[in-house]
Write a structure and sequence with these properties.
185 residues; alpha/beta; Rossmann fold; six-stranded parallel sheet; two-stranded antiparallel sheet; 34% helix; globular; hydrolase activity
């Protein structure tokens, strides 16, 4: 555990009910994220927050300076926890995230957050490419219904397909509860 960090991706107000881009099950996922954050803090595992921000005021969501772009209060960072601001889907692209992790001696990540099919996917694949071990707390992530042509894809199917693909790519999907239990070990 000494080289592990919890990476909390884009748990921001616009993804919650009443936000500009609500996700299926975001409240439940955020509760699991909060459990993991509490366990990480208790076990002195670094917690690193990532916040997506669009510099355009005309963005559909996460517009810079709006309440929707703020990290949700249920998972708010403590003053000593880093917040990496990103402008791309991939949390490692054009940010100091990789350098921050290396500086802290981090070799493995537990990744949580939103959206599973975009930013969680991109960060997980980038982390694997950079040589990090990755565990995904799959019940601490959220997505939404999608469509491909005439095929409607419910959020649960999007989530299952993505977790299967990321497991195939080398990540280890686990429940938040199992991770918390391991940390308490």
């Amino acid at each position: 555990m000494a080289d592990t960090a919890l990476l909390v991706i884009d748990v921001q107000n616009d993804y919650f009910p009443g936000g500009k881009y609500p996700l299926a099950g975001m409240d439940a996922a955020a509760a699991k994220v909060a459990d993991l954050i509490a366990a990480a803090r208790w076990n002195r595992i670094p917690v690193i927050h990532v916040r997506h921000e669009s510099p355009s005021s005309e963005a559909d969501f996460f517009a810079e300076g709006t309440p929707g772009a703020e990290i949700h209060g249920a998972v708010a960072p403590l003053p000593d926890e880093p917040v990496v601001v990103k402008h791309n889907v991939n949390a490692f692209l054009d940010t100091g995230l990789d350098g921050l992790l290396k500086e802290k001696g981090i070799g493995s990540l537990v990744i949580v957050g939103a959206m599973s099919h975009m930013c969680v996917d991109a960060a997980t694949r980038a982390a694997l490419d950079l040589g990090y071990g990755v565990t995904l707390a799959h019940d601490a992530t959220a997505t939404r219904d999608l469509a491909f042509g005439d095929v409607a894809v419910p959020a649960a199917s999007v989530q299952a397909a993505l977790m299967a693909a990321l497991e195939f790519a080398g990540a280890t999907p686990r429940t938040a509860g199992a991770i918390v239990t391991d940390w308490a070990g």
